[in-house]
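quick one before i forget lol
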Amino acid sequence: MNIVTLLPFIVLIGAMFLMTRSAKNKQRQAAQMRNEMQPGTGVRTIGGMYATVKEVHEDTVLLEVAPGVHAIYAKNAVGAVLADSEYNRIVHGIDPDDADHPVVPDDASSLTGTDGADDSPADKAGTAAAAVDADEAEKADEADEADKADVKKIDLGKQDADEADTTEDDKRDGNTDAK
């Protein structure tokens, strides 16, 4: 046989060998990770649940999924063993890097530095303008309510539906309109 005809088969067998080798390597690393679990470490199951390891047995592990709630899982159900900082960040919302950053207020009132005792004339004028705007808005609301009271009720066909019911009763009694 010619080597050119065997070349595709050789490449295919080589690719299969490399794929199975990498899969076995991943399985070995996952088994090693599961065997290194210790009580108190945080884990993520393959279903996406975060829990704390309480006890490790040969094929099973006891996880605390909530305070006081324990569940027994197969070791194969553990998807990842998490570092303490990552587990606390995900589960408890504790980010160790947040302590270094300043706290940013939700509004700008704390950034102005005034508590309203020594308002400037411009601030007082702005407050007066806001009061006038509030009065105008209140008058507009009252006008809208008056307009709503003047609107006539719209017939939604309920009266026609009642008449249709009476004609159906008549038809059942034998009063049909045959055309």
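fyi The longest strand covers residues 50-56.
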